[in-house]
Amino acid sequence: MTKVEMLTQAKTMREQEIFEYQINIDNFKIALQNIAAMPAEERQSVSEFEAQLSKLLNDNLREQKKAQIMLDAINAQL
Q1: Cα 13 to Cα 59: distance, rounded to the nearest angstrom
Q2: What is the rounded CA–CA span in Å between residue 51 and residue 72?
Q3: What are the DSSP calls for 21-74, one per residue?
Q4: Quick one: pLDDT at residue 4?
Q5: pTM
Q6: How many CA atoms lie within 13 A of 12 on its CB side?
Q7: Is there a contact between 77 and 7 (Cβ–Cβ < 8 Å)?
Q8: Which CATH code, of 2.40.128, 3.30.70, 1.10.1060, 1.10.287, is assigned to 3-77?
Q9: What residue spans define the domains of the chain?
């Protein structure tokens, strides 16, 4: 396999990774919006889950950014 073929394959994998992070990010944002719209007493019962979703959102945003940096590096070589 040539360098260009390997980079092209790596590019496809990074693009897929970024896309998967985006799906998660969108889902977490919508879930957090839905929780925020709940009445206070209902929202209190899912506060731990809300905190987990918030952490997952931040983690996925960070990891997506890392994947984007690596995709940019791959594209620079192509």
Answers
A1: 19
A2: 32
A3: HHHHHHHHHHHHHHHHTS-HHHHHHTHHHHHHHHHHHHHHHHHHHHHHHHHHHH
A4: 97
A5: 0.92
A6: 5
A7: yes
A8: 1.10.287
A9: 3-77
* pLDDT tens digit sequence for 22-74: 999 999 999 999 999 999 999 999 999 999 999 999 999 999 999 999 999 99
Scanning the structure block, which residue is given the tokens 């719209």? 37
Residue 68 has a pLDDT of 98
Separation of alpha carbons 19 and 25, rounded Å: 10
- Torsion sign over Cα 68, 64, 21, 42: negative
- What does the pLDDT read at residue 13? 98
> b/e for 21-47, b at 16 or more Cβ within 10 A?
beebbeebeebbeebeeeeeeeeeeee
